Amino acid sequence: MERIVEIGRTDNRTMEHLDVLCNRIGGRLIGSDAYENASIWAASKFRQWGMEVVMDEVGEIPVGFNRGPWFGRLLGENGMTLHFATPSYTSGTRGVQRGHVLIEPKTQAEFDRMKGKLNGAWVLVAGENDGFPIDISAEADSLRDSIKLANAETEKINNQIRRENRENRGSGKPQKELLPLHEQPALFYKEMVDAGILGIIQSAPVPIRVLADRKNVWNWTFETLPTVPDIKLDEHQYKQIYQMAEERRYFQLEFDIRNHFKMGPVKYHNVIGIIPGTEFPDEYVIVGGHLDAYDVATGGVDDGSGATPSMEAARLIMEAGGKPKRTILVILWAGEEFGLLGSQSWVERYEADLDKISNMVNRDGGPTVPVSLTVSAAQMDDFKEIVEVINSINPEFPLELKERTPRTRPERPWGTDSGPFAVKGVPTITFDCADPKGYNFSYGEIWHTERDLYNKSIPEYQEQTATATAVLVYGLASLDHMLSREDYYLEKEPEADQKERKRKRQDN
Ligand SMILES: [Zn+2]
Q: Ligand 1 center to residue 6 CA distance, Å?
């Protein structure tokens, strides 16, 4: 372990891996060429370091997606460059497309009034971007149809109110308020697309976050893909443009969006690097982060900050000539962003081996630095030496060993790849991390946004993490026994918690 620390201190390559992953390969959702490139690259590094590699097939996505660059401008007296993004697995433009701007219709009457102008228009739709594209499925169309019917009924009443208000004007009787219509973004989506709109535009808080239609991508074929762009525009620009459209001023918007689909099915794999155990080869310590990342940025943090220290930990162990007693599996998970696909699938396929996993280390929470490890009373002694060695890496980053209060085993996985393991009772002890030097890091800023870039990472934290992870994993794999699971998870909820939960339920 001293050798690992030495190399980790003098020749740490975590940021080199991150540079390649973000800046040569780029954003990498499953189904993209970039994801495949990242898998091949990671596998080649593992092999180069002397590890065995398994390309662990998880599944296939019916259609793939590759994102190119995107540009937009407002053309008019107050011309400007537009700041926007489009969700993954949505349509690009047909080259550079220019058009006038309309505010979307909310009722059939409004639709009829503007239907002749929809051809070649960009349409401002209601609501605020939450990252998801407008749902183009038949199911969503039928939901929109039922809202249209309800709105049509409301409009009948409103027309009555309007009539009464007109009659009562000047009579001293109070004017009645109109009933509100149900606001559904892109309510006339299908009709507008059929009428020839260029695309829809929604207001987006900054930094702009975009996701993908994680539900419908599994049902698409190359023939049933979205055909018009779904633009999420900087809310400040949206507001300005909305006002200009409302004032019926003349201006145009121009977009060039290079979103490309890829004929599927496209397989996706967990990349597993193996350091075989010398004494207990069929017992395991797992370490990793997810390899996939949203492609509006480059996954510099989510989850470059987890995948690359895991890779570097593997390299440090190999470079130091480490020979662990039990097998270390370095797993770069596939499809975390589409619902923990890689880890969930692995846990299901290797259910019989889960008892043989001493610990599963996952990192997916930002480029912060380890400050403590929280372990059960029964595991305390096994961590003492590990923590001592980690504390020899860099005095600026002391690590504290804390005792864990037993908790109930979760029934459903939490939102990252250790979740499916925890559900099965596998210990998922990992570092508690913090930002002791005050780099002002904000996870909300990068989470699936355009800012999740290489330079949001924090090199000294990332390097410390890689070395500490190597020591942790190697230390656990070299114990002469597996970590105890005694009182790690309580099989039964403590009575006090049960009472508390019941009380809360009654309160609601
Ligand atoms: Zn993540």
A: 30
